[in-house]
Amino acid sequence: MIYVMDLVGVAVFAVTGAIAAGRKQMDGFGVVVLAVVTGIGGGTLRDVLLGVRPIFWVADQTYVLVAVAAGLLTMLTARLWISFEKGLAVADAFGLSLFAVIGTQHAMDAGAPGVVAVLMGVITGVAGGVIRDMLANEMPFVLRGELYATAAAAGSVLLLVFPKTGVGEVLGPALALVLCLAIRLAAIRWRIQLPIFRLMRRP
Amino acid sequence: MIYVMDLVGVAVFAVTGAIAAGRKQMDGFGVVVLAVVTGIGGGTLRDVLLGVRPIFWVADQTYVLVAVAAGLLTMLTARLWISFEKGLAVADAFGLSLFAVIGTQHAMDAGAPGVVAVLMGVITGVAGGVIRDMLANEMPFVLRGELYATAAAAGSVLLLVFPKTGVGEVLGPALALVLCLAIRLAAIRWRIQLPIFRLMRRP
Amino acid sequence: MIYVMDLVGVAVFAVTGAIAAGRKQMDGFGVVVLAVVTGIGGGTLRDVLLGVRPIFWVADQTYVLVAVAAGLLTMLTARLWISFEKGLAVADAFGLSLFAVIGTQHAMDAGAPGVVAVLMGVITGVAGGVIRDMLANEMPFVLRGELYATAAAAGSVLLLVFPKTGVGEVLGPALALVLCLAIRLAAIRWRIQLPIFRLMRRP
Hints:
3 copies of one chain form a homotrimer. By secondary structure, chain A is mainly α. Helices cover about 75% and strands about 0% of the residues of chain A. The first copy, chain A, has helices at about 1-25, 30-50, 55-60, 60-80, 85-110, 115-135, 150-160, 170-190. Chain A is globular, with a radius of gyration of 17 Å. The interface of A and B includes residues 26, 29, 30, 57 and 75 of A.
């Protein structure tokens, strides 16, 4: 069940990667690369930093296959639905929430202290998109745009402080996911932004 | 023998890194960085993702030395031969083919499933150049330009499906290398490109 | 004592990251990301490449906390002192020297050969700033600007060749740090640059 949701999250992120590639007029290989990187990049960075071996997609090739398929399907069909792109932002919010919860859980399982576990939740949720934007030679969306990573951090913190015993074992992750999703959807709906830090450019 | 070819591949890629640094008017340190990153970056990412320890150049400093030397030599002599740069693309095609075969082989030796082994071949072949272009603040050539990574993928797939027994142990890698080289040289000669995926830029 | 100096180095680098975020008009999350990445990025890349587990900040969350706090404090107070920014370059020179020495020492402890140990010193000193600049979509300062990484390399080499026995165990690192600091401060004072490698841009 979690496995299937995880694959759905990978697919959703891979679609956003493929669209970014299309906006930059990349070729078919670029589409596949941005799909794969966006889909599995966050979890990869988490596993490398935590020292988890093997990385989740190295032992199970389904992840890479799903990301490649999602990228190619997007390339073939995007013209049909790209004008309804708003729906994608909602799917992306779901991917973010799911990955943040899974990432925090992995870090806690690996014995990481609290602050590090939250950081790993955020990294799992956003790093794929950061690498996607860097490959597209853009300043990462997440550093500048709407409230996004903060939603992931909120979900991670909730999971961290929620009692782990009894019903909390299932309820904690579920509530964390809902909290992250709610914040992110609210940010999309009302265009909520974090305060900007402005310094003059160097002369 | 393979060791010497591997070092030649590192040197060739290091030269392309140094030239990219020159086109961006970097200083001597920038030249060395781009030479080293382009020369050993692909294999480094492969080893980190596969969890191979130690990374190939950490135990044997010859790799770093060869990349540094190739970068500095390029800086000192490039003006003499840069107008004949076409030859470099052929050398680069050889480096790509060699690294793709070595990368796939390493992944198979580490027990990675087929799709992952092909991915590791492609990563070993192209990731150094991708990091080079990102450091030079350019959109990676491989995501947009001529057929390049696809040649590496074709060689990797051939190596994967070729029978490993008997004479195949030598013939497989040799044929994979030749296939990759042939596709890449054809792409250079006739400027073959993958289809481009075009979406309008966000308004 | 070394631990405290290490944290000071992280804080100083985090401040430079937060300032870079401000110059790019990033939001509060972007400030935190650039602070953390600049503060701990160099040591992280070193530990990943050396295969050291766990990475220094995964087991001890103080590092991340210090970087986050330094970033947020910078965001809140930078307007008060940003016109005296020159002092920051001196603090940054201290961070560079300290990280170069610590990085080289870690690599020697891990049994890396000499060239690799120097490379690890340089990586620990400069990689955080390189990732910072890439996230800000700028060509990394260190590849183009004043003498910077070369100072780290000089300190690393001195540490490497200095006799390790007796008083050298303390004197070596101290002299290496002073050498790096002296070169970097001289470079700031007299705007010393490495020679630039210029090739024509591709037509």
